[in-house]
Amino acid sequence: QSQLVESGGGLVQPGGSLRLSCTTSGFRLDYYAIGWFRHAPGKARDGASCISSSGGSTNYADSVKGRFTISRDTAKKTVYLQMNSLKPEDTAVYYCALTLGYCSTSRADFGSWGQGTQVTVSS
Fold first, then answer.
1. Which residues, 6 or more positions from 43, have their beta carbon under 8 angstroms from its beta carbon?
2. pLDDT at position 106, please?
3. What number is the average pLDDT over the span 104-110?
4. Which of 14, 33, 41, 79 is surrounded by the fewest CB atoms within 10 Å?
5. b/e per residue, 103-118, with b = 16+ CB within 10 A?
6. What does DSSP assign to residue 3?
7. How many CB atoms lie under 10 A from the CB of residue 42?
8. What average pLDDT does the segment 39-66 reach?
9. Are strands 32-39 and 10-12 parallel, antiparallel or unpaired?
10. How big is the chain by its Cα radius of gyration, in Å?
11. Are the beta carbons of 2 and 26 closer than 8 angstroms?
12. What is the DSSP string of 20-83?
C-alpha cells in the first residue's frame, strides 16, 4: 500500500525558510513522480512543484519559482521541498502525492495523498 507522509511545516516569519519532507513507503519511488500541492483557506488546492521519477525534470508554479526547490533522495525514499523567502501568501496546508513516471499538469492524475503539513508565514 502506497503511503506518503508530509512533515516539516510550522510557523515562520516572512523572508524565512522551511524544508518540507515527503517520506514514502510501499512502492518504488523511482517509478513515480512526486508533486507538492498546497491548499490555502478559501482557495482551490494548487500545484506548487513536481519532480519526475528520475529526478531529471522539475517544474514550479510561477508563484514559487526562484524561491522553492524540489529534490528527491531515492535511497531515503524522501522528496523534499526547500522553501526560501517565504511570503504570507505561501500560508497553506502542503500535501504531496504521486503519479506514474512524469509530472502531470492535472491534479486528478495524482494519488495516495498524504495528510498534509501546515505552513504559516506570519510576523
1. 92
2. 87
3. 89
4. 41
5. beeeeeebebbbebbe
6. E
7. 5
8. 95
9. unpaired
10. 13
11. yes
12. EEEEEESS-GGGEEEEEEEE-TTS--EEEEEE-TTSS-EEE-TTTTTTEEEEEETTTTEEEEEE
pLDDT of residue 33: 96
Number of C-beta neighbours around residue 12 at 10 A = 18
Whether the predicted pLDDT of 32 surpasses 90: yes
* 3 state SS of 94: strand
Buried b (16+ CB within 10 A) or exposed e, 67-97: ebbbebeeeebbbbbebeebeeebbbbbbbb
pLDDT(44) > 90: yes
Instruction: Report pLDDT digits (tens) over 45-54.
Output: 999 999 999 9
